[in-house]
Each structure stands twice: as structure tokens, then as C-alpha cells.
Specification:
198 residues; alpha/beta; Rossmann fold; 9-stranded mixed sheet; 9 strands; nucleotide-binding; P-loop_NTPase; ATP-binding; KaiC-like domain-containing protein
């Protein structure tokens, strides 16, 4: 199946990585996926080192809706504080790289296998990853074992910032052959899905 972008287009019961190098768009991107899940009536659980008020403020800034189906576990600064079972239909792991600083390649392999196994029990996992923090081989292990990878890219062009979505892999879906442009401003995160030729 060809990939047609939408925040509700990601496969269920999967581990999806949302990765960005030193940027601020991967959280709103993941939160838009969470909002789509909430609109379907799913329960979303969000694990973060931040305060709940900060997460909600960011969502409000970009006009991302949230409901009573959105539960936030705040102040998680150590991976040992992550519960072994997530009670949500969609579980979001924020600050993933910071939680796993110092993890060996073998530890990351076991953690990813565990997440994939848990995702098959009728729930999805979103990993919000700041790329470039973990050692290269550890980061590559995350990408290799995830069901899908979404990379958010930023370039400068003519004095303006241009943002793109790259989807190198996604289970059950043929990845798009081109970058997908998007903008992030006070109107929210807007994805340009117009087909491009040439």
C-alpha cells in the first residue's frame, strides 16, 4: 500500500520513531498523532521528564487538541521509572535519547525487542528521539528494530527555514519517494500533501 500522509495513517500495534536532530518539531508532530488517536476515542499515555503544564502549553501553542483520554506521567528522568506496562492504546516515550544515555548496544536491543513485543498486544508506541545524542550504533539499533521511522529535517533556503518529513521505513506501507514539506506556526503543524512532479 502506498503511503498517504495523515496523522491517523500510522499502522496500529507498532513501534514508530519520530526523530529530529536538535529541533523543536518532533514533539508537536508526535502530539498531533496523539490527537488523532484521541479523536478515535483511544487512550493516550505520555511519559516525559517535563511538567504536565509544559506539555499542555506546547499543545495549546500549536492548537493541538487534547481530551480526558490524555494521561501524562511527568518528571520521568530515569528509564527505570518507566512502567513495564502502559495502560494506553497509544504510549508516547518523550526524551528517549536522554533516558537511554549510557545504554549499551545489547541493552538497547533488548529494550527495543521488549517494546515491539508489547506493541503487539493491541497498543502502539511512539518514541520521540533527539538524534545525535546516543552513540551511532545504539541509535541505528533503534531505527533497525522499530516498525517505522519518521525523520523531521530542517534546511535553510534563501534565508528561510524549510521543513520536511522523510519516512525511510514503515511496516505495511511503501515509503514515499519524496520528502513531504510541512510548516509549524501559530496555525499548527500543516503538512503539504500536494503531489510534486519533476
Amino acid at each position: 500500500m502506498d503511503f498517504e500522509f495523515g496523522f491517523d495513517a500510522f499502522p496500529p500495534r507498532s513501534v514508530i520513531v519520530i526523530a529530529e536532530e536538535l529541533g523543536g518539531t518532533h514533539r508537536p508532530f508526535a502530539q498531533n498523532i496523539a490527537a488523532a488517536a484521541m479523536q478515535r476515542g483511544e487512550k493516550v499515555v505520555y511519559f516525559t521528564r517535563k511538567k504536565r503544564a509544559d506539555v499542555i502549553a506546547l499543545m495549546d501553542l500549536y492548537q493541538i487538541p487534547h481530551t480526558e483520554n490524555f494521561k501524562i506521567f511527568e518528571g520521568i528522568r530515569d528509564r527505570t521509572l518507566l512502567p513495564k506496562e502502559c495502560t494506553g492504546d497509544l504510549c508516547i516515550l518523550d526524551d528517549f535519547a536522554a533516558l537511554y544515555v549510557g545504554a549499551t548496544l545489547e541493552e538497547m536491543r533488548e529494550e527495543m525487542w521488549d517494546l515491539v513485543d508489547r506493541s503487539r498486544k493491541n497498543k502502539g508506541y511512539l518514541i520521540i528521539l533527539d538524534s545525535g545524542i546516543l552513540p551511532h550504533d545504539v541509535e541505528q539499533m533503534i531505527y533497525a528494530l522499530a516498525d517505522g521511522v519518521v525523520r523531521l529535517l530542517t534546511t535553510a533556503e534563501g534565508g528561510k527555514i524549510k521543513r520536511f518529513i522523510s519516512i525511510p521505513k514503515m511496516n505495511g506501507i511503501i515509503p514515499p519517494e519524496q520528502y513531504i514539506p510541512f510548516t509549524l506556526n501559530a496555525d499548527g503543524l500543516l503538512v503539504d500533501t500536494r503531489e510534486r512532479h519533476g
